[in-house]
Write a structure and sequence with these properties.
With 226 residues, the protein is α+β, with helices and mostly antiparallel strands. 17% of the residues lie in helices and 11% in strands. It has helices at residues 18-32, 78-82, 86-91, 122-125, 155-158, 208-212; strands spanning 3-5, 40-42, 66-67, 73-75, 135-137, 184-185, 216-224. Strands 1, 2, 5, 6 and 7 form a 5-stranded mixed sheet that branches. A two-stranded antiparallel sheet has the order 3-4. 47% of the residues are buried.
Length: 226
Amino acid sequence: MTFFVTSESIGDGGNLGGLAGADAHCQGLATNVGADDRTWRAYLSTQARPGQPAVNARDRIGAGPWHNVNGVMIARDVAHLHGDTIEQARLGNNLHKRSGLTEKGQIVPGLNDYPDPRDTDWAYVRTTPYTNRHEVLTGSQPDGTAYPPDMDYTCDNWTSNADPPPEQMQGPLVARPGKPNAQIGFPDRNGGGNGSWNSSHGTRGCSQAALARTHGVGMFYCFAID
């Protein structure tokens, strides 16, 4: 196994403890299933800050190939994963609902799997593991690079669980000036926006409750770099 979707979140919304905290979460989950012989990295970008350059998710996950827990190949290399050429983009990678598994081999619950009107309420979601939770944090553009620093796409580089004022939590799921937000993707490629695996739309905010409002719990992709 060299790829998985986290089976559980850190539990503090978009505050993952930065990239270091997210990487440690990947490593810990991998260790729990006996895959600690590899070095794991979270597929997350961070935006440039004064004195700190941006970090691109695509640049921190190794060279590939990557396979899920069942040995199914997700992508041969970084270019195949992101569709860098016209031909690669046309063919696409092999990440979809039945291949985008957790480290435990579980399918990530998505739209229409177990529909329930309460599945956007964190109080319900936190105790019901089969609720729709297919939004995966990435903070990335479709090519796996970081967004410009003018608006928040990364919950302040994965250190914030803040929410915007109530009026900014309504309307389109897009970044806006001053709005805490994270860009997400769908391992099942079935959701709002363009359904992209790594860059579909934003969130209502960065708290655990805000992520749940659009069917997320703070999960992310983990890739082995060796």
